[in-house]
Specification:
This is LCP family protein required for cell wall assembly. The protein is α+β, with helices and mostly antiparallel strands and about 400 residues long. The chain is built from 11 helices and 19 strands. A hairpin with a 4-residue loop joins strand 8 (about 195-200) and strand 9.
Length: about 400
């Protein structure tokens, strides 16, 4: 990595100080700021073609259509060998690919997970090894989790942009230990398990009930696929949504965001285990993002799995017709409304929290589907419009809903 000049390093120190004070409202101290800056500059900076979309924008609320953030989880093995031989087992695959959309008015956010075995079209991309040279050729019908290895983070972003029709100016890559460190920083994440999970591949063994996961146990929970759902990556995504929604509830719980020590721990955990795009070095951008998400109601933070169907030989999946509805909602900056039965009915889905009493319909009124009612009510105006009612094969959950991981009987 090239050495940074004094002006750049100084600017990053000031950025860290401003960001810490803006988020916590308290003077955490110069040591914390310098420590965070040293963490940032030790990681490679990612570059996105469309990061110039943020130029001249004082706040992401001023951006047409809101802000899109790409989060990639790489399966690159750590140097300590805890997850396999870093020389033999690493393929630098983007096994986790998520698009986070924050609405223009900061009233809602959507997180879309793309199955790792989904076949996609890859556009021409700049070669990370020679950015100014000939671009890498476009590809057709390749699994999305191979794009990071082929063309780097920028190519993954370009692929998701082409797939969804939205612009992605910021993003980052998270490493294996990132989740473990984040779970520790927030003091653990409570997840619900409907049936016993036993997975020798990741070493996770959880009886039914609620478990507080932290450190490696949190990472095992997110990595397991053999132990949940239908045993596929689709089941793993549903399991990840259980964890991530619980994490959001933890972050918004009493005391977490007002505790300077926890805030510093969260920032340290994230920065130590992530490589961020260059636009995120701008303190204005960091502050804007923090302010945008801190007050969003949990019911308006919705996790969905990009809808797919299996290929004829079941070796991969391809986007289903319902993907158009997801793309259209993202492009229109509309909140997602999920069919309440979609996730429970899916083979790779999750179960409703058994401790939550179901809502009984009024005896004088016929039972109806809430999402269908909201979509068909002509009196619904912009102030009460629930958003885009997604097709019944789009699975997921709002962060406000407690759902339970369902075990894989096989």
């Amino acid at each position: 990595m090239p050495r940074h000049g004094g002006w750049i390093s100084g600017g990053r120190i000031m950025a860290a100080v401003v960001a810490i004070v803006a988020v916590s409202g308290l003077a955490v101290g110069a040591f914390a700021a310098v420590d965070l800056v040293s963490t940032v500059v030790s990681k490679p900076t990612l570059t996105l073609v469309n990061e110039d979309a943020l130029e001249g924008v004082p706040d992401i609320g001023a951006m047409d259509g809101g802000l899109n953030f790409l989060l990639v989880g790489s399966d690159k093995r750590t140097a300590d060998g805890a997850f396999g031989d870093p020389e033999e087992d690493s393929a630098v695959l983007n096994d986790v690919t998520m698009l986070v959309h924050i609405s223009q008015d900061h009233s809602h956010a959507e997180v879309v997970s793309f199955p790792r075995d989904m076949l996609v079209e890859v556009p021409e991309c700049a070669d990370p090894a020679d950015p100014d040279g000939e671009p890498l050729s476009s590809l057709s019908s390749v699994k999305i989790n191979t794009v990071l290895s082929y063309g780097g983070f920028g190519c993954v972003a370009a692929t998701v942009e082409q797939l969804t029709g939205v612009t992605i100016p910021v993003g980052g890559i998270v490493e294996f230990y990132g989740v473990a460190a984040l779970a520790e920083a927030v003091g653990g994440v409570d997840v619900c398990v409907a049936e016993a999970i036993d997975d020798e591949h990741t070493g996770i063994h959880l009886p039914p009930g609620t478990h507080t996961l932290t450190g490696i146990s949190a990472l095992q929970f997110l990595r397991t696929r053999h132990g949940v759902g239908d045993g596929s990556d689709l089941g793993r995504i549903s399991n990840q949504q259980v964890f991530l929604s619980a994490l959001m509830r933890t972050l918004q719980s009493s005391g977490t965001l007002s505790d300077p020590a926890k805030l510093y721990g969260i920032a340290k955990a994230a920065l130590s285990n992530m490589s961020l795009s260059s636009a995120l070095q701008n303190p204005t951008t960091l502050i804007s993002i923090a302010r945008a998400v801190q007050d969003i109601d949990l019911s308006k933070i919705v996790f969905v799995q990009y809808p797919t169907v299996y290929t004829e030989d079941s070796s991969a999946v391809v986007p289903s017709d319902s993907a158009d509805a997801v793309n259209a909602a993202l492009q229109a900056d509309e909140p997602f409304v999920i069919d309440p039965n979609a996730t429970t009915d899916a083979e790779f889905g999750t179960d409703a929290d058994p401790t939550s009493a179901p809502v009984e319909p009024d005896a004088d009124e016929p039972a109806t589907d809430a999402a269908t009612d909201a979509a068909s009510d002509p009196a619904t105006d912009a102030a009460t419009d629930p958003g885009a009612v997604l097709p019944p094969d789009v699975t997921g959950q709002p962060a406000s809903e407690v759902r339970c991981s369902s075990a894989n009987d096989g």
